[in-house]
Amino acid sequence: MTTTSIVAGPRADRGPAAQRSGKPGRRIGNVIYSAIAILLFVVFVFPVYWMINTSFQPNNDIRGSEVHYWPDNFTLRNYETVLFDPGRTPFLPAAANSLIVTLLTVVIALVFAFLASVAVTRFRFKSRKAFIIAILAIQMIPGEAMIVSVFRVIDGWHLLNTIIGLTIVYIAAVLPFTIWTLRGFVNGVPIELEEAAMIDGCSKAGAFWRVTFPLLAPGLVATGVFGFIQAWNEFLMALVLNARPEMMTLPVWLRTFLVANGTTNWAAIMAGSTLMAIPVIVFFLFVQGRMTSGLVSGAVKG
To answer: C-alpha angle 170/175/178, rounded to 5°?
Structure first.
């Protein structure tokens, strides 16, 4: 009896009255969290909504003093201009260039980054720390500082205005970040899993590919998403290295709507931006299920 009262003591101290007093505080906290979540949702979603809303409005409505929160004079003319205007650089070739360069960049960068991250995480070799520090230092160098040297190198290789040349530059730009990010994911997988597989009869390579590699899937997907966004939206290198109209990527193609004399077709820019965002959204929907780290924690359970 005495033991029961001692164990139940702290719970009894809180009592029904204390529990009732804690509920209003919890409710207020939930209300505050909900308000913050709604505010963040509005802040992030409103620019996207405004882009789509503007893409369905005539230019006269956009340039007028009245703000249209809804496309009162709904029109698809802006999308017709973007897709079918014979007087402009066509959209589809630019989209194809962007898609090819981005996918090549993501796939090749992930392969190299994966091998490099495994090497620096699982093995000890000379100059390993210097290599890791170099990866971190390279990320701090802005692309603008290297534009001249990059241009001369690509020109020397006769790869200006080519998909291959731009892909090489993008891989070099994305690779340090992907190595650094994947290194953390590889380091998070316990080496004991591989050792247990080797005890069960797997070779070292077999243990890695059968046990460790599947657990790195969320890390590969997450890193690939950031690499995709970085390559898809890159503007400066594409502008300098692929300036020909037939080799433009979408960010450079979108610039063709900007006119210095003030006659910029903002409605068409918004329509082009909306179309440009669709592949990114589709890619996110395709891989979002893998962007979790739950597989790693579940693998070590038990």
So the answer is: 125
How far does Cα 199 stand from its chain's mean position? Answer: 39
How many angstroms separate the CA atoms of 84 and 77, rounded? 10
Q: In this structure, is the dihedral angle defined by the CA atoms of residues 196, 200, 206 and 209, taken in order, positive or negative?
A: negative
Tell which residue, 63, 62, 65, 45, has the closest CA to residue 54: 62
What is the tens place of the pLDDT at every residue in 173-193?
A: 999 889 988 888 888 888 888
Residues 6+ apart with CB under 8 A from 130: none
pLDDT at 17: 53
Q: Say if CB 108 and CB 171 are below 8 A apart.
A: yes
Answer yes or no: are the C-beta atoms of 248 and 242 closer than 8 Å: yes
Give residue-wise pLDDT tens across range 202-229.
887 888 888 888 888 888 888 888 889 8
Distance CA 266, CA 54 (A): 8
Amino acid identity, position 140: M
Q: Which two tokens stand for residue 179?
A: 């190595």
Instruction: Tell me which residue of 152, 181, 149, 161 sits closest to 101, measured CA to CA.
Output: 161
Return the ∠ at Cα 89 (arms to 83 and 94), rounded to 5°. Answer: 75
Range with the lowest mean pLDDT among 58-67, 71-80, 122-131, 259-268? Answer: 259-268
pLDDT bracket for residue 51 (50, 70, 90): very high
Cα distances from 222 to residues 45, 154, 185, 275, 288, in angstroms, run 21, 30, 10, 23, 9
Exposed / middle / buried, residue 36 (Cβ in 10 Å: 0-12, 13-18, 19+): exposed
Considering only 29-33, 141-145, 242-246, 294-298, which range has the smallest mean pLDDT?
A: 294-298
∠ Cα 278 284 285 (to 5°):
90
